[in-house]
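ERR on first pass: missing label on line 2. Operator R.T. fixed the label and resubmitted. Corrected input:
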Amino acid sequence: MPSAITTRNLRKIYRVKKRLSLVKSQEEVVEALKGVSFEVKYGEVVGLLGPNGAGKTTTIKIISTLLIPDGGEAYVDGYDVVRQASEVRKRIGLMLTVEKGFYGKLTGKENLEYFAALYGLSKSEAGRRISNLIKVLELDKLGAVDKLFEEYSLGMKARLSIARALLKNSPVLLLDEPTLGLDPPSARKIRELVKSLAREEGKAVLYTTHNMFEAELVCDKILLINRGLIVAEGTPSELKSKIPKLRVITITVRNGEQARIGEALTPLVATYSVTSNEFGETVVKVSTKSPEEILGEVIRALVACGCDISSVRVEEPTLEDVFIYFSQ
Amino acid sequence: MWFIEILRAEYKLVYAEMLRRKSMLVMMLLYPYVLTGFTLFIGYSFGSKQVFVEKTGVAPEVFMITASFIVLSMLASIDDMIWKPLMDLWHGTLPYIIASPVSRIMLYAATPIPRLTAVVIIGSTSVIPVYALYYGLSGLFTSLIVIGLASLGAVFMITPAMVVTGLANTLGESWRVINIVRPVFLILLGAYYPRILMPLAGLIASYALPPSHIVELIQAFLRNAASALNALSLIGVATALFVIYAPGGSRSILLWERKKVKEGVKYD
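pass 2 clean. output:
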């Protein structure tokens, strides 16, 4: 079985005219992609993360046949995005922007019917799929079905946009920042749906976002792209383990004397602090590269000096830390 | 089958726009009268009705209402198609259309048909009453023939419009090109200004435009100067030109799309 999406050494150069004066201009070459390679399997949600101008949208455009690359290859369901674009187009569901992309004077349902015709669905099949999607995305509950698109809220637009991406029942979904600007309930609805589409229906999803929290919640694998290159990839926890950041162990203890705690910890750890919180408890913070190696010894030492431990927390680096680390 | 679905979708899109944008509907109803009134006002200011009848063989009111209807029909064919790429870019629907498996040729061929049928229906409100007023009951029959011929001419406009759509939108700042090409097309039709009065270059260019032959036929019909042979030969030439433009039209649309994907279809 071929991978849902495969890219090999994708390259793209944009030539932009830079105005120097009223009449003079100079051509500027921007290398948007410098050799991007990755795979997305069926049943997997892969997040494409990166700062502005990193190459996320260019990658999505190439895979969705909206842009021809200058080098490298990209395949969707085994079909070449340049030479077999029409086959690729039958297999992708696309969501590019939330705000635009529909006809304002048509209702939500009419817009879906229009695109169903472009996708080659028969009237009966389109009707069945549209009714189903309206229910799944709760467009009926929001009163959006017979409302003109120009009167839609952003949340309604996002749901309608997802509905269109799912109209063809495509095995591959390309979603470019699908929750951008949405209210929390709408964003959550879309995240849940994307996850279930991959897990339950085996769809492959390529998902770009700036939202680290969202990426961690939705994506099985994350590709970090920066300046046109994939700089890191892996599961969220794999990525976190790749950055050389000190983890902080925070232990809250009752009836602990700060002086005795200091004496107990000095031989074990190099960096620590002992303070009090607003509840009168003592808070011990230990910084270390490998919390799993010293956590047991630290707890034993605290217990030995008469501390009653009420909580232990190990602060992992966030995906945001990973993003910032690899974006620099 | 797919073409029927596309056509149905285009009908819904165009009629929703027309019926939900009342000003557009009113404009379409008034357009032939406004244009006729305007041209007659200028005509009467500079010349006389008798001279016009002597030169054209038709009453100026009938000639102008017919010309306005022809122009409106042709615009229906040209406008929806020629502006479609820009309108889709503006709506943000262009990337979804390009990334869809729909045949571009089918889509662009279907685009002008809904407005064309609307124009035929709406146009009847201007052509039929004026013809009935001037020619009585027989005017009703004449007006139906004129409406039918004008609609046929508008259909013949589809393939040259496809050629222009592709080429104009391939160039940068396509809206500027479109704004120049549209009036040139309308002049070359010879609806307001019969092509026999055009200079040679204009005449040759007019001959290259399929619907201009139908316009000539309509004008001959109004002068009672259209023989069956004349009618058949003019329709034959228009049909041949329509067919000749077809491959160029499809290539032109594909050329535009190729350029779009080379640059990258914008949506952000």
